[in-house]
Write a structure and sequence with these properties.
The protein is mostly beta strands. It is 1% helix and 41% strand. The strands form seven sheets. It has a four-stranded antiparallel beta sheet with strand order 3-2-1-27, with no helix packed on it.
């Protein structure tokens, strides 16, 4: 069986899991009493590098790195991510750490709150502000979602380093075709359900919760919106609804299979004020035909009433065979599947609120 590292960021530290003798063993908390909203596992290197965006209520946010799978950590003497003085702002949180594809060695993107994108060309040791997005004329009109205004998703093309897609809460999806020199809103077909009926399809301003990229066709994207699940077949230029067959079209997370095209996962939540699993049943939904149909996955998940909410970065897939799927909830439970979601096991429980989950073969 592949050796998978499972990184779980929580409200009070990072926990690292490895499968041993048929079960999971975890170390941690690393960075106790710090909220870990982002983890990146860079497997492009000979030795995988872990990047962690941790947020101390006393010391503020920072990016840590480890080149020995969490046995030791390095924090730069100067902050890796910092806003230039002329922006008149300061870093509140690192929401995303995304190693780019093999076509861009050494490049790592960081999405932050306030809503900005940073780029590193030295494997995440130092970052510079992507001024073209920060200076975009629409940025001052982005609103703050419930979790704050943030660039929370970064998607890069595996073979074309010039194609970069980001999702902003609450600004919508933006695409760059020239390596970040310029950006265009890419929200055609995505509703802003909180606006009046006649204003439901604005050019920008949608509350996009997460975007995932198809494994086989990198121009195919899956989007979980604040009301609505969508697919794009042209890199985000146009979106169509694929919510039919789901018990609810609200949710935060969406993830795609790392090897199989057309396979994606969501964790629906009721759209009412409670925002809990529909009928209080813990269910992951999988599509194997790019959103044409959905199947509820429940074997090994609790049958009792379940109230755990899965946040936007708390579901992921790994690059193992045939394919692992993972999710964590705000009850501090993390569930794992080694067979593409057909069956599940409780990997760990009683953690603090789970904020993000990342997994990779190491």
């Amino acid at each position: 069986m592949d050796d998978v590292l499972l990184a779980v960021g929580t409200q009070k530290g990072l926990f690292l899991g490895r499968r041993r003798d048929g079960g999971w063993g975890f170390t941690g908390p690393h960075f106790p009493m710090q909220a870990v909203y982002s983890v990146g596992i860079d497997t492009r290197r000979a030795v995988p590098r872990l990047l962690v965006g941790a947020d101390s209520s006393h010391w503020g946010p920072s990016v840590f790195r480890s080149d020995d799978l969490g046995d030791s950590w390095h924090e730069p003497a100067r902050p890796a991510v910092t806003f230039p003085e002329d922006t008149g702002t300061s870093l509140e949180r690192v929401w995303q750490l995304h190693p780019a594809g093999p076509a861009a060695p050494g490049v790592v993107y960081a999405g932050t709150q306030p809503g900005a994108l940073f780029r590193s060309e030295d494997d995440g040791e130092t970052f510079g502000l992507v001024r073209s997005l920060w200076d975009h004329p629409q940025r001052p009109q982005w609103e703050a979602g419930f979790g704050g205004q943030a660039v929370h998703t970064v998607v890069t093309h595996p073979s074309d380093p010039d194609l970069v897609t980001v999702a902003v809460s609450t600004g919508g999806v933006y695409r760059s075709k020239d390596g970040g020199a310029s950006w265009e809103p890419s929200n055609s077909g995505v509703q802003a359900t909180f606006l009046p009926e006649e204003q439901r399809y604005p050019e920008f301003g949608q509350c996009v919760h997460k975007v995932a990229q198809d494994a086989v066709d990198p121009d195919r994207l899956y989007l979980q919106n604040h009301g609505g699940v969508y697919r794009s077949d042209d890199g985000g230029a146009k979106w169509t609804s694929i919510a039919a067959g789901l018990p609810a079209d609200f949710g935060f997370a969406v993830a795609s299979h790392k090897h199989r095209g057309g396979v994606a996962y969501v964790f629906p939540l009721s759209a009412d004020a409670f925002r809990m699993p529909p009928d209080y049943r813990c269910r992951v939904y999988r599509t194997e035909d790019a959103g044409g149909t959905w199947t509820a996955l429940s074997r090994g998940l609790p049958d009792d009433p379940s109230y755990g909410v899965v946040l936007r970065d708390a579901m992921c897939t790994d690059d193992a065979a045939p394919g692992g799927v993972y999710f964590g909830n705000r009850n501090g439970e993390v569930y794992a599947s080694a067979d593409q979601g057909d069956s599940w096991e409780l990997a760990v429980a009683h953690l603090p609120d789970v904020l993000c989950v990342r997994a990779a073969v190491v």
